[in-house]
Amino acid sequence: MSLAALALAAYVSLPAGHIASVLARDADREPATVAAFAMRERPVTRAEFAAFLQAHPEWRAGQVPQAFASAGYLQADGAADAPQTAVSWFAAQAYCESEGARLPTWLEWEYADAADATRPDARSDPRWLATILGWYARPANTPLPAVGGAPNVYGVRDLHGLVWEWVDDFNSLLVNADSRSAEDPDRLKFCGAGALDLQDRQNYAVLMRIALLASLGAADSTASLAFRCAKEIAR
């Protein structure tokens, strides 16, 4: 895929709105305000990331500094139209910058993620939750399919049922007054304790994503973790 094709990556606009975030604590129950923004319609594919590496060889495996990529960086196979996984937060952010974009914030991702095909917020629908949890129950050792699932009400695809995704502020999702530093060997214990403050604890699908992201460092990567980009909308 050429660099020109990269520039034509499809973004869809999401209107400003409010969301009762799962991350809201007892002292902050008011819905969070989300400004209008644009989000990549699909996760970044392996073909797109390969084109990025041609233009930015400093991000290739074996050339990127260890501080920016762990040992598993880009160590995942798949078809060209499958999402690019095994990529660090640093590399994902660099890719988004190459498109004049950035990684979405958690609130932006959660706002887009809450929608189904017809409703901006389907999280109270048990059938919606059951469909997502059914994906979690499937074996994780099969090749990832191509991006391009059915769109939600905003036109965003593949937020569920395909991969996990990086967000810009992944390392602050479970921070509260009793959180410990990233160097603390008991950090995950406090991440788990922080989850007790979360609202909508029945939304296990979203809480699983939060737990995964909060356990990672920016240089980490996994075979099921991909990314997409977001952009500001000029006012």
Automatic annotation (TrEMBL):
Gene3D superfamilies in the record: paralog of FGE (formylglycine-generating enzyme)
InterPro entries in alphabetical order: CTDL_fold, Sulfatase_Mod_Factor_Kinase, SUMF_dom, SUMF_sf
Domain of life: Bacteria
One Gene Ontology MF term: formylglycine-generating oxidase activity
Residue span, Sulfatase-modifying factor enzyme-like domain: 11-183
One Pfam family, short name: FGE-sulfatase
Protein name listed in UniProt: Formylglycine-generating enzyme family protein
